[in-house]
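Worked Example 4.2. Consider the chain below.
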Amino acid sequence: MKLSVKNLAIIVMGLVLPVLVWAVPAIPHQFYGTVNFTSGSAPDGLLVEAKLVDGVSVGSAITKDGKYGYDPLFKAYDNSGTLAGKTISFYVAGINTGETAIFSNGDSTNLNLTVPGSIGTINKSAGDTITNQEIIVTSSSLTTVNMGSSMNVTVSSNTTTSANIEKIEQLGSSYYAGATAVIAGNNILNGYEIKISGSGLTITVTMNYSDTGIDENTIKPYYFNGTTWVEITPFTIDKTANTVTFTISAAATPYSIFGNPLVQSSGGGGGTTGGGGGGGTTTPTPQVASASIIKGDANNDQKVDILDFNILMINWGKTGSGIAGDFNSDGKIDIFDFNLLMINWTK
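Applying the procedure from the previous section yields the following structure tokens:
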């Protein structure tokens, strides 16, 4: 059948042709500002995100020179066309900054972000306690926690991640009792509970110790596994700086360093003629307080503190000569020795 132009026109007019509609994307909302932690400005390369209440990310950028949104630009996109008037929250390296904004298509907003965490160095006193403190670690920026001159903890990672210092606290004398008692024949030189949670972390601990009256060749670090003290290997000891350093992939247990008291030579004069006498022998003799040092200073480090208290408690109730903690030299460890220690505490 031959179609005329007129018939073809009639057929085309009777058809329902599809109409193509192109959706115009909504104009994004731009943000920019500074990024700071409680310990200083943010390092380069941290992820900054804008999220909805349900956690969906609508925009991101990275930090540079302590700022975000400049290079590269930070734009929150309204891909669904429904964000206008909604609240978005801002996160840095996965940590909620607490900052929010109302999305508005086409706006440009200066919003400075303060992250409730630390990066870099945290300085505390030896006896301070740290609980639930967020930290940020990057491949180029580790976090160091200094507990006075008693201990420092370094947290590093091969990637950018957040971690939580759930607890860092010095162990008191009351801790070393029962299953956690000091290993027989040892003195407690330092101890901390260290609990840090996070993934991909490397944690390096350096504890200081006093070597007065201690055989440094016997000093070792230990962790408590819930039942007993277990030696940590490998470790490094610096006998000049008086430090013990060990590295762990996760920290969630108490750590301590122990060492044996020095041995004292006794007996055995030896002659050079007629067969001579026998050689001298060595017997373990704990350091005992004398008139030349402070009463209560069981380890002869010229101060009366928790280490002396620990020695007193270890030997409590013992009788005999040369017992560490026998401050009044009456051959027994009792309340009178405790009183001397308390009188001279911290002197």
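The longest strand covers residues 187-197. The radius of gyration is 34 Å. Compare this with Example 4.1 before moving on.
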